[in-house]
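[Q] Does anyone have a clean structure-token version of this?
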Amino acid sequence: MFNRGDLEKISEFDEPDVRRSTSALVDILTKTMTDAEMKTGGRRLMVSSLASGQVNALCATNSWDEKHYHIFVDADLTVFCHSIAKLFAECLVRNNPFPGEASLDPVLVADNIRDPELQKRAADLFCSAVMRGTPRASEPWPPSPAAMMLVGLLSPALNMFPIAHELGHLHLGHLEAEQTRQIGVEGLEDLVASVYSHEDEFQADVVGSIVTMQTTIRLRIPHIYTALAPYIFLKSVETLDACFEVFGGQAGAMSFTHPSATERARKIRDAIAMQLRYHNTGKSFSAAVRVVDIISDGMRVAAVMNLRRLRSQGRVPRERIRLRVAENGTDVRILGLFPRLDDQ
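[A] Here you go.
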């Protein structure tokens, strides 16, 4: 039932549009992998959405169907990626003397990310993720006309990477690897999630970035910033982690089962540099990375400062239900948290 397109919602936290758009992305990415003779384990792929609170994806198997792998995506993953795309695009094109073009000027970009409007948008996105349990901004906003084209390039590339990362696990055979722990997921009957080694996570990042880049090339939407989409995604997760740490926890972080986003971002940056050198298109790489870092730092400062203000006012994150997995009697968080539903 996880992939029934005729059902509007298959669970309370399911987002049918996310499921359908992710299924389309899986088809696009696996086409790239098929063309490159990269296999994904021999099983068919099914997609479902899940409220994990981690703006991420995971791959699972089950005891009742040996023909499929299940890729679960967070119900808010698409929203998170699109919101990050909008913020980056605005910072890259605003006040640019070349209308509609993405800037490589660190001074210009630094001025843009300090703009009160963009500071407000960044704080709203990340603070909403911490306080309300969803990255859906409390005040939705459209990108400016000048930023629309870049948003249209960045948003799908950002969405591709976490899905391509999961396909990387399948291509590398990590689900069947000896070091991979197969853990039953409480609350999802007969489902088994995989906890990979940190080295396997780094390897899947590299494969995911390669598949993402090759897909953008195949679709004829290559761009220095779409090439950096995996790095932008992980830098945004790093910011999200810093936001949760304001309240002394890692409620939305993936560090229970993944290496730190900081280390992953560093390694993926180096992997992307090698790919760009291979394609002989890396001339603007260093400048673009510097720009991404400036925007990421600016968003983190805006969000963390606002969260500290909220904390000083006695505000606390919304109560959440823990969704856990257990192995040998030990609780291991794998799917994170989602908000407790109430009348508010």
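[Q] Thanks! Anything notable?
[A] The chain has one domain: 16-339.
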